[in-house]
Amino acid sequence: QKEVEQNSGPLSVPEGAIASLNCTYSDRVSQSFFWYRQYSGKSPELIMSIYSNGDKEDGRFTAQLNKASQYVSLLIRDSQPSDSATYLCAVSDSGGYNKLIFGAGTRLAVHP
Amino acid sequence: DAGVTQSPTHLIKTRGQHVTLRCSPISGHKSVSWYQQVLGQGPQFIFQYYEKEERGRGNFPDRFSARQFPNYSSELNVNALLLGDSALYLCASSSDAGTAYEQYFGPGTRLTVT
Lengths: 112, 114
Hints:
The complex is a heterodimer of chains A (about 110) and B (about 110).
Chain A: E1 4-5, E2 11-14, E3 19-25, E4 33-38, E5 45-50, E6 54-58, E7 61-66, E8 71-76, E9 85-92, E10 100-102, E11 106-111
Parallel strand pairs in A: 2-11
Antiparallel strand pairs in A: 1-3, 3-8, 4-5, 4-9, 6-7, 7-8, 9-10, 9-11
Chain B: E1 5-7, E2 10-13, E3 19-24, E4 31-37, E5 44-50, E6 53-57, E7 64-68, E8 74-78, E9 87-94, E10 104-105, E11 109-113
Parallel strand pairs in B: 2-11
Antiparallel strand pairs in B: 1-3, 3-8, 4-5, 4-9, 5-6, 7-8, 9-10, 9-11
């Protein structure tokens, strides 16, 4: 059973701080990794994709990947109350088609 | 450009009934995947279709079926509805079928089975 694990939270950070969200996965062969943001009652929105070891930055977001440790993280700098949402980590299945395996998500709360 | 569209937005059905959910992918995208999201959990993969052919199937019973049309839109059908089928059904669109391609979700259809 291929799994993606995330801390359910809530992760509470003050406005302006760095929020750090973590994810581990079980399938060593996975090649593609994604972070989605989901507001309550809405559908997931893709915010980052990462395929190689190291860091990838996009605005206030930085994704980090360590395939040896089977670990993916998302850093949100200068957190805003509008960043309050559930963040879903998704890992591509190694079965050869475009199946994503999702974690249960981490709820982030940014307080003013 | 329009994103992924899904219809209907909400649906209430009775146990034992049948339901059809519809999805139109982003223009130019040829792959559609369906996911089920139960409250408090991440989405679970149901099907992937690419160029009108089923490319992958998740761990769901045969009551779930889908198809993709020549214009790349897709339908998800669920027969003999159970209370446990109540969930948010998400359609995801990607430009191609491989694992590296990003998937973009539609707004979802919230199905309630009573």
